[in-house]
Design goal:
By secondary structure, the protein is mainly beta. It has two domains: 1-31; 35-199, Beta Barrel (Porin), CATH 2.40.160.20. 14% of the residues lie in helices and 65% in strands. It is built from one helix and eight strands. It has one helix at 2-30; strands at residues 42-57, 60-79, 82-96, 99-113, 120-137, 142-160, 163-175, 186-199. It has an eight-stranded antiparallel β-barrel with strand order 1-2-3-4-5-6-7-8. A hairpin with a 4-residue loop joins β5 and β6. The longest helix is centred in the first third of the chain and has 29 residues, at 2-30. The chain is elongated and about 50 Å long.
Length: 200
């Protein structure tokens, strides 16, 4: 009985020492100026990508299409790891044959950044927002708009002070229905991307 009482007392003392020490350490770490992905941190950056593709039908090649994407990003950490973000005005420009297409996207995101070491931050994000597409040249010109949603994930790597390299992939379901459409028009996009962010 005395032996069990001794264990209980030692356990209580251990908890009283370890828990406050851990809480103080976490509080000190969250107040460090060099701590990425902690509450109150802002992240500013974006990515730029270029894609060239040539259609093939029955062994014959067709027109080559070019796509350029510029995606700015701003994010704010509401709490450790949890980030509310936005791609305020992302631009996708493409040219296929005689048709030039420009898409403006405004997407909001909610994501979580995991702590995997001193410089690695794997992340996942959900995306939702608005897309407007304008096409000119070719057979006809048109303006379409609609709702887009999807997700992205990858890893942020701290390479320099107050900056991270961002590598990942994204899926986006874009809906661009013309007036009176009974079925969905748009695109399903899978994109690999690289970007750079600074934080403060």
């Amino acid at each position: 009985m005395k032996y069990q009482s001794g264990i209980a007392v030692n356990l209580i003392l251990l908890i009283c020492i370890v828990v406050p020490s851990y809480a103080v350490a976490q509080a000190e770490r969250s107040q460090r100026s060099d701590a990425f992905a902690y509450r109150g941190t802002w992240e500013l950056g974006g990515s730029l990508g270029f894609l060239a593709s040539t259609s093939v039908a029955s062994g014959s090649t067709g027109e080559t299409g070019y796509t350029l994407m510029a995606t700015p990003y701003v994010g704010y950490f509401l709490m450790h790891g949890l980030e509310l973000g936005a791609n305020p005005v992302a631009v996708k420009w493409s040219k296929q044959g005689g048709t030039t297409t420009t898409e403006l996207r405004m997407l909001a995101s909610v994501g979580y950044n995991f702590f995997a070491g001193s410089s690695l931050y794997p992340f996942v994000e959900g995306l939702a927002g608005y897309t407007r597409q304008e096409s000119s040249g070719g057979v006809a010109s048109a303006t379409l708009n609609g709702f887009s949603w999807g997700g992205r994930g990858g890893v942020k790597i701290a390479l320099l002070e107050h900056s991270v390299l961002v590598l990942g992939g994204q899926y986006l379901r874009v809906t661009l229905n013309p007036d009176g459409a009974d079925a969905r028009f748009g695109s399903n996009e899978i994109t690999a991307f690289a970007g750079w962010s600074v934080w403060f």
